[in-house]
């Protein structure tokens, strides 16, 4: 199967790094979730993904596949031309950006708009972090937090939570007084300073607030699940921890999007999509960071049990435009390989496989986030 004609929606990615910041960042940093210098400078260039990606980038940029040559070629092109090339080759219908990652060093959401239709996700923990140092009473903070989400700001098509990174996905119902105590304890610990919110009662309380608002608007909420940088305790990033939220009758109308194939908890995530109407799953980060066999297995595991109406494409691209291209290339190629096997196995007819490809690459996200007109992604026959 060749899926290159299907224009994809990248339903979870991040803003590109400002060029002057990228100039002082090792290229390998874009290809690893690790940030220890020994990983970034000593080991990240030895992954199968990195070796494969250098050759693929070189082919796109029409140069030799050594890192030095690629870096020289990137400088010659400049970020705008490089972005045009990568986004064009990725054949993207739209991207959805979480601009809460490295907010001080990234280009604004609007910068990306000339290259591709761009939508925004609002990162909930980031929002709270901006507000907490600015108010000294919990009830005022809470009212302000609610007002920033309700109604959702213009251009925001979903909320995003990094609770998995901070305190884990075992999100509890928290009494008001307990959340208020946490708020005052944080303020006393860091008076007037910027904070990194990692307080479980307060994060859990605010997530319940956000979910109640999302329920009113039927607004999707994306959760980081599975692997990520070592800030995260992977044991607490298993999406099975979300059961109390998924069972909560107040949030049944909130689409919950599990990110990153929940890798390595992909089968657990697939199970959740199969039994909870509101749960969706995407493949970003697993695609394109795994080996080819790994990407194929991850997508195959997503398809083992999941209704195909619940699966979506994303890249989790960040820092550099090349990752948008590599994600789209392998999102299509690995999906094609898995669908070909499904045809061979008799799971799908060729026609059904084509429809599933369109749904996963664009159609499901288009419906879920009410982006554009789904019919335009269906290829001409
Ligand atoms: Zn992400």
Describe it for me?
With 381 residues, the protein is an alpha/beta fold. It has one domain (8-377): TIM Barrel. The protein has helices spanning 19-22, 37-42, 48-61, 67-90, 109-112, 124-131, 138-149, 163-166, 176-189, 200-217, 243-247, 266-275, 286-289, 292-305, 322-345, 350-368; strands at 8-13, 92-98, 118-123, 156-161, 221-223, 256-258, 279-282, 284-285, 311-312. Helix 9 (176-189) packs across helix 10 (200-217) and helix 12 runs parallel beside helix 14 (292-305). It starts with 7 loop residues before the first strand and ends in a 13-residue tail after the last helix. The protein binds zinc ion (ZN). Zinc ion is lined by residues 12, 14, 98, 316.
Which percent bin holds the helix content? 40-55%
- Written as H for each helix and E for each strand, in order along the chain, the element string is EHHHHEHEHHEHHHEHEHEEHHEHH
Classify the oligomer.
single chain
Number of strands: 9
* Low-confidence region ranges: 373-381
Query: What is the global morphology?
Result: globular
Rg, Å, rounded: 21 Å
The name CATH uses for the topology is: TIM Barrel
Strand order of the largest sheet: 1-2-3-4-5-6-7-9
CATH architecture: Alpha-Beta Barrel
- Report the mean per-residue pLDDT as an integer: 95
From the structure above, extract its key features.
globular, disordered C terminus, 381 residues, alpha/beta, TIM Barrel, binds zinc ion
């Amino acid at each position: 199967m060749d899926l290159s004609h299907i224009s994809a929606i990248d339903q979870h990615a991040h803003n590109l790094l400002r060029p002057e910041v990228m100039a002082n960042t090792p290229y390998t940093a874009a290809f690893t979730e690790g940030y220890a210098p020994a990983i970034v400078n000593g080991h990240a260039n030895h992954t199968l993904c990195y070796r494969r990606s250098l050759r693929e980038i070189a082919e796109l940029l029409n140069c030799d596949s050594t890192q030095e040559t690629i870096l020289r070629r990137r400088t010659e092109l400049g970020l705008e031309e490089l972005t045009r090339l990568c986004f064009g080759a990725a054949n993207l219908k739209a991207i959805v950006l979480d601009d809460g990652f490295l907010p001080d060093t990234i280009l604004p959401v609007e910068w990306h708009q000339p290259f591709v239709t761009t939508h925004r996700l609002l990162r909930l923990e980031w929002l709270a972090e901006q507000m907490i140092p600015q108010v000294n009473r919990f009830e005022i903070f809470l009212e302000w937090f609610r007002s920033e989400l309700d109604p959702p700001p213009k251009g925001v098509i979903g909320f995003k939570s990094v609770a998995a990174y901070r305190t884990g996905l075992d999100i509890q119902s928290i009494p008001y007084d307990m959340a208020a105590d946490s708020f005052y304890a944080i303020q006393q610990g860091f008076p007037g300073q910027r904070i990194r919110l990692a307080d479980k009662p307060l994060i859990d309380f605010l997530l319940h607030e956000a979910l109640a608002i999302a329920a009113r608007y039927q607004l999707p909420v994306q959760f980081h699940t599975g692997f990520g940088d070592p800030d995260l305790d992977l044991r607490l990033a298993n999406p099975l921890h979300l059961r109390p939220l998924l069972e909560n009758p107040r949030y049944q109308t909130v689409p919950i999007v599990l990110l990153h194939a929940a890798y390595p908890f992909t089968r657990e995530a697939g199970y959740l999509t199969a039994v909870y109407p509101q749960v969706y799953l995407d493949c970003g980060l697993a695609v394109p960071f795994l080996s080819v066999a790994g990407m194929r297995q991850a997508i195959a595991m997503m398809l083992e049990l999941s209704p195909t109406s619940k699966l979506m494409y994303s890249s989790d691209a960040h820092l550099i435009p090349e990752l948008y291209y590599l994600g789209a290339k392998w999102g299509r190629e690995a999906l094609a390989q898995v669908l070909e096997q499904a045809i061979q196995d008799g799971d799908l007819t060729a026609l059904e496989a084509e429809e599933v490809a369109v749904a996963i690459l664009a159609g499901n996200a288009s419906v879920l986030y009410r982006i554009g007109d789904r019919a335009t992604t269906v290829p001409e026959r």
